Amino acid sequence: MMRLTAAAFAGLLSFAATTGRADPTWPAATDEMEEIVFQLQGFKGRLFNDLINPCNNEAAGPGRVTASEWLRLAFHDMATANRFSQTGGLDASVQFELNNGENTGPGHATSLQFFANYLSSRSSMADLIAAGAYASVRACGGPIIPLRMGRRDAASANNVGVPQPQNSVATFRQQFDRMGFTAAEMVQVVACGHTLGGVHTAEFPQIVPPGTGVNGQVGLDSTSAAYDNKVVTEYLDGTTKSPLIVGPAVAINRHSDFKVFNSDGNATISAMSSPEAFRAVCQRVLQKMIDVVPGGVVLTEPIAPYAVKPVDMQLTLVSGNRLLLTGNVRVRTTDLPASSIDNVVLTWKDRIGGNSCGSATSCSTTSTLQGVSNGFDDTFGFFPISVYIPAYEGISSFTLKVNLKSGDSQSYDNNGNLYPMTDGIIFQKPQSCLLQGSGALTATALVRNDLTDLPISLGASYLTPRNTDNPVPVLNNANIVMTKGDCSGAYTFYSASFTIPGGLSYNARISVTAGEGEGAVTDDFNHGGALGGTCVAFSDAASCSSITTSSAVSSLSSTALVSSSTLLSSPTVTSSSAVVSSTTSSVTASPTPAKKSVVGGYAFAGCWTEGTGTRALSGPAFAYDGMTLETCMTNCTGFDLWGTEYGRECYCANNLHSTSQRAPPEDCNMLCSGDPTEYCGAGNRIELYSTTATRSTTATPTPTPTGTLSRKPTVGPYALVGCQTEATTGRALTGAMYADGSMTLESCATFCSSFTYFGVEYSRECFCGNSLSAGSVPAPQSDCSMTCAGDRFEYCGAGNRLELYKLATEPTSSAAVSSGPSSIPNNISTTTTPTTSTSTTAITLSETTPTASPYTFLGCYTELPTSRALSGPSYASRSMTLDSCASFCSAFQYFATEYASECYCGNSLAPSSSQVPTSDCNMPCAGNPLQYCGAGNRLQLYSLPNSEAPVPSHPATIGSWIFSGCRTEATGTRALSGKATASSDMTLEICADFCEGFELFGTEYGGECYCGDGFAEGSVEVDEGECNMVCNGDEGEWCGAGDRLSVYRAGRD
């Protein structure tokens, strides 16, 4: 069980106090819904609240508050419940009842259409409707409604029975009694539901006559986009303007809220008049409302976010003898700042539950924070996992440990069950592919050789649209027998093909299973949208080996909810060749790095320089520890090109800048920070990869064609308008939006089907509207250069650029632009060239900004060939300014901006960084075109005034150790191979203590320490100035650099 070691973890565990329980045992049936509901925005955000954030968002059209539509949908779906026959309730039957006269208006259909993006075998439409009610109330400031899961979707309509305005009080009471509510609860449900939204002329012209209200709507209280008690207090004090209480409805007996509120002489409604009472009552009755379900449905306990949760854990065979475990550990940081967490350690058990890890002495890996996300009430930190596991030892489970910077720690073992991870069958994503246009799926599985006598099958759970007015697609399942292929090491390949019909293949969930029934082993719920369009050949096979077993033990699948697997104890591995070597190192032996010819659907295109004064790849950029070629490829989904640089940077684009030049492959010699077997470029050198699909660009070698990237003149009823900028002060299209890692033009067109325009932006964002906001203007078509995240053969805009489409029945020669004042600052001079498709703005920058308080400009400085001139924290942003960088680096002596969008901090400037003419720093800041932010290999440098920063050096001695110079690494191996460690607090003293007993120690790249008794072949001495990275834990000491060791030799008495 979890072991509390410090009171500091009270915040981390506080959720248990509020829910009365610990984390579920992972994996749980509620995991998918838990992420949809709580993991909303930011890193891995599910974006479930996009249409209700802010609360007054009107995605279904002017005057229609989306949050109120979501809450109303839940009531209408529940309202057919019959407690006597145990039928109806919240079961998504409303999708079949949209035209029965009781569910008027577009809000029900548009809400269901949005929820359909999340429909899967683990997230029913009924659960999504309930989650929509929870989210709508919370987004508008209402109480937290306890949310249970486990609802099942109806296959047809229920009986009619939704209350209508003309009903009598007696009828209302009978209807609510049928649903299971008392007379008092009837009043409460109506009040709690009618604090949001209003009544519309289109549906109720007798109650809201044409020409009244705003946008054809009159609110039910004066704050129709806030969850408060005004619906009660305004009724009681006689100031209400609700059309269901006063106005034309009275004369025609349709003033339903008055009839309900007054049904007990205002006793119940009066008891709700205080804000506290209103919130408490609404929390209770709304939970009861969404918990009304048909007989036989058993709901779970209310869900709550995990304190610590494994997310997207996946095994991949990367060579015949090696598995790669990837994923993330998500830590709830609501009451425990992510900045206070030092790292997360994952420790795994081998296939038989032991501690055999091949050549490593510890089956563990350490991860630091990569990204953060948030929900309505919670925040989360994500710690990426990427670790190699010997295929012959395998994995059966793991545990987790969260370490705080204070020295406290907390261990998690999944409620005593360990976190299960089966290696019996693996969905092999690199060798699987999906053409989303046609739905053609090729799936590859790896089956452990002791399980190959079992039947192996491919499962596909997918959606198909209905050819009716029902906006909810049908959830289908297919099962296909897989064909046995070649053997590689301890695994055998299996493959199968299937064409997913319906045009929604990007939403499919893929599983591979060995065996049947309770004894089956499965790797399931893999997202189809994550597959590339090209299957990559497996290029590093090993001699086939057999695994024999003596007994069977039960285990859970890595992703299955309740499936079990046959795990084999005491395996005997036989092979025709040696597969594992051992060392005496106390850490994992350093593997030999190599160039990768293929990564996913991309081929190695060589080592290239940066451009002259610009980035060679000018699209999105990422920088983080833990960089691998695979994570960079994922970051750049939808682009033709991507490349890694400096060991930890990733860049994307569809074209390589013309000034970038090919460099010798050996120039790209820095290892990836997240995988020491891969190269990730170097200083001013990009490890470049190009798509193997046909492209429209020619900057890299000709790829193998599998499709054609081109503009689509029409998408359904929409015609291409062209490339369009965003508005001056907001979105060009403000009707509705969503974002999806599987975005296509077709999915966006479907989502926006009730609007005049749709536009796609930045590969994965979709926007709808009936007009374009002020300041949105045509841009050159070439500006929309990013391919769609879900279909690399379509264009989906770019940063601040919309690939814009308009209904073909409307004129497409010009855009309908709403009027509004210009927001161009007076100090920017603009020139416009009037053409049919372009509008350009030339920005005149002021002189170099002399201060960015409290920092003062020092000048323009060069970067270094193998490391950073400022070696502290860094980040990149498309909204970079001098002020934002200064704020980020406020704890450091220096800050500098580079390449328009990068920010670096440090307490010392590397001595080999030299000052150059200020005019060299000539790139405007990405977030402020009136400021300069360096240039290619040029730093716009600022320093705190009147402050003494430590001057780093190589001390002549560290204890009894004597400085011995700066050396390179060896050829193809480590210069010092005795043992090694790495630390975010590395100093020369720490390394010296660690290497006690050895003849030599060396520090590298600021935080790495190596020991040995001699240098390996190829390590040579270089100028001391090349060891110019300060130690992570002491800004006054040098700790080597990239491929450079600060070396000390043991002294002799």
Automatic annotation (TrEMBL):
SMART domains in the record, alphabetically? Answer: WSC
- Cellular compartments annotated: Membrane
Respond yes or no to whether keyword Manganese is given for this record.
no
Q: Which UniProt keywords apply?
A: Glycoprotein, Membrane, Signal, Transmembrane, Transmembrane helix
Xref: InterPro entries: Haem_peroxidase, Haem_peroxidase_sf, Kremen_rcpt, WSC_carb-bd
A Pfam match: peroxidase
Question: Any idea where the Plant heme peroxidase family profile domain is?
Answer: 124-337
Q: Which residues form the signal peptide?
A: 1-22
Annotated WSC domain ranges read 601-692, 717-808, 854-945, 960-1051
The record's Gene Ontology cellular component field reads: plasma membrane
Q: Which Gene3D superfamilies match?
A: 1.10.520.10, Peroxidase, domain 2
Give the superkingdom in one word. Answer: Eukaryota
Q: Name one GO molecular function term.
A: peroxidase activity
Name the segments for region: Disordered.
816-842
**Mind listing the GO biological process terms from this record?**
response to oxidative stress
Recorded topology in the membrane? Single-pass membrane protein
Q: Decide whether keyword Transmembrane helix is in the record.
A: yes
Q: Which family does it belong to?
A: Belongs to the peroxidase family.
Question: What protein am I looking at?
Answer: Heme peroxidase
The species is Cercophora newfieldiana
What's the source species' lineage? Eukaryota, Fungi, Dikarya, Ascomycota, Pezizomycotina
